[in-house]
Amino acid sequence: MTEQLAQGCTQRRYEITAADLPLSCPMPDSRIWDAHPRVYLPIEASGQLTCPYCGAEYILKSNYSDG
């Protein structure tokens, strides 16, 4: 099982858009979506966050707008 988890968390940086919100890690379309407990990340305020479980970095593309 450890081998599967490592394969599911190999990408370390993700660029996302407003269409991906609300952001959760792992993302629902990830190859191994259950690699760790799903955690929702409030990326809208800062534009960038790191998952506390796997260290994946998420960056919200600048075309996101609040309204």
Fold and architecture overview:
This protein has one domain (2-60). Mean pLDDT is 79; it is low at 1-8. The chain starts with a helix and ends in a 7-residue tail after the last strand. It is 10% helix and 25% strand. With 67 residues, it is an alpha+beta fold. The longest helix has 7 residues, at 2-8.
Summarize the structure.
The chain has 67 residues and is of the alpha+beta class.
Properties at a glance:
67 residues, alpha+beta, two-stranded antiparallel sheet, 10% helix, globular
Overall geometry:
globular
Range of helix content: 10-25%
Number of helices: 1
What kind of assembly state do the chains in view correspond to?
A: single chain
- Give the biggest beta sheet: 3 strands, mixed
For the termini, the CA-CA separation is 43 Å
Number of strands: 5
| Radius of gyration using CA atoms only | 12 Å
Whole-number average pLDDT?
79
**DSSP strand content:** 25-35%
Q: What string gives the helices and strands in order?
A: HEEEEE
Secondary structural class: alpha+beta
Give the number of domains: 1
Parts with pLDDT < 50 across at least 5 consecutive residues: 1-8
Secondary structure: elements and pairs:
Layout: H1 2-8, E1 13-16, E2 23-25, E3 39-41, E4 48-50, E5 57-60
Parallel strand pairs: 1-5
Antiparallel strand pairs: 2-3, 4-5
